[in-house]
């Protein structure tokens, strides 16, 4: 039998009367895991569900992995763990669905009801029609991937983060981008469009072809990553194949190409801001993923660029 004392890093209304002692009858520290402790703590304090808990060793701040046993983290009978309330949680799938829903609502509104936003009707140019179709297809694809393709190592995140994470898509990729590209500046009668390359059917079709290749390639890399992790597991493996033989994060590379095409087609400041902001964040994630792969797989991880071939 092993018992664990749970104290709190700060007072919480979800678990009054801490510290509490949890007993695991008939089990040793070699068998009881951090996940077992979380479940036992929830049984005692039902509103403090496991995904809301961060458990760490007393006096330390590092979160303990759910699969670790008590003995592996140096805890024996009577040892103490500290719990931190992470706040209300929301699934990663729901987070992404909310994020990508913003542009799917904003773009149709500004495209189909321009008088509401610009004070006048807009005769849409071929360029606007192409961009509208590409943006809608992109975010519908994102929604599909969020629900049916992606598998997450962490099941939830703090609900408060939804507002922060949604800013990029709802404001930059939604309101700002839509307001710029569906405006009269890009209309069929605009001097910015008439008799320019932006009104050239061959140019628009060529851009759309490259964009479509980038989108399909991005989906293919996501499917490769999905197949590396069986459903319900946190298994990690070195990805190989389409794009991965040269780049750690080819999905980011193809994402950048897709949005670069929109920038090249429109020349819009809003499109460039969205691309630059997104590329910056993806670069941070790519560096982190590259470092984690090298740390986890060591010499078994092949030499690759992080995000952009021959550059970064």
Automatic annotation (TrEMBL):
GO terms for cellular component: endoplasmic reticulum; membrane
Signal peptide residues on this chain, from the entry's feature table: none
Location(s) in or outside the cell: Endoplasmic reticulum; Membrane
Annotated membrane topology: Multi-pass membrane protein
Phosphoprotein as UniProt keyword: no
Transmembrane residue ranges: 240-262, 268-287
Highest taxon of the lineage: Eukaryota
Gene Ontology molecular functions: oxidoreductase activity, acting on the CH-CH group of donors
Biological process according to GO: very long-chain fatty acid biosynthetic process
Keyword check for Protease: no
Keyword entries, A-Z: Endoplasmic reticulum, Lipid biosynthesis, Lipid metabolism, Membrane, Oxidoreductase, Transmembrane, Transmembrane helix
Family affiliation: Belongs to the steroid 5-alpha reductase family.
Official protein name in the record: Ubiquitin-like domain-containing protein
């Amino acid at each position: 039998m092993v018992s664990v004392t749970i104290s709190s890093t700060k007072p919480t209304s979800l678990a009054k009367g801490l510290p509490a002692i949890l007993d695991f009858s008939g089990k040793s520290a070699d068998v009881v895991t951090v996940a077992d402790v979380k479940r036992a703590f929830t049984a005692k304090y039902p509103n403090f569900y496991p995904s809301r808990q961060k458990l760490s060793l007393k006096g330390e701040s590092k979160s303990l992995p759910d699969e670790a046993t008590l003995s592996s983290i140096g805890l024996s009978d009577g040892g103490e763990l500290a719990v931190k309330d992470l706040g209300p949680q929301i699934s990663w799938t729901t987070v992404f669905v909310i994020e990508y829903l913003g542009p799917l609502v904003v773009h149709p509104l500004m495209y189909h009801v321009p008088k509401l936003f610009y004070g006048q009707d807009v005769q849409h140019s071929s360029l606007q029609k192409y961009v509208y179709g590409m943006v809608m297809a992109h975010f519908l694809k994102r929604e599909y991937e969020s629900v049916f393709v992606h598998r997450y190592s962490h099941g939830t995140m703090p609900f408060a983060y939804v507002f922060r994470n949604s800013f990029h898509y709802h404001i930059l990729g939604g309101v700002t981008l839509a307001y710029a590209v569906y405006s009269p500046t890009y209309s069929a009668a605009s001097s910015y469009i008439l008799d320019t390359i932006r009104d050239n059917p061959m140019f628009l079709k060529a851009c759309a072809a490259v964009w479509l290749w980038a989108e399909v390639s991005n989906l293919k890399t996501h499917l490769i990553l999905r197949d590396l992790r069986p459903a319900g597991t946190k298994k990690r493996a070195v990805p190989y194949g389409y794009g991965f033989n040269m780049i750690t994060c080819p999905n980011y590379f193809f994402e950048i190409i897709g949005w670069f095409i929109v920038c090249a087609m429109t020349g819009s400041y809003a499109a460039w801001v969205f691309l630059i902001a997104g590329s910056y964040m993806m670069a941070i994630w790519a560096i982190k993923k590259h470092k984690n792969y090298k740390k986890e797989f060591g010499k078994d991880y092949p030499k690759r660029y992080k995000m952009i071939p021959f550059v970064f």
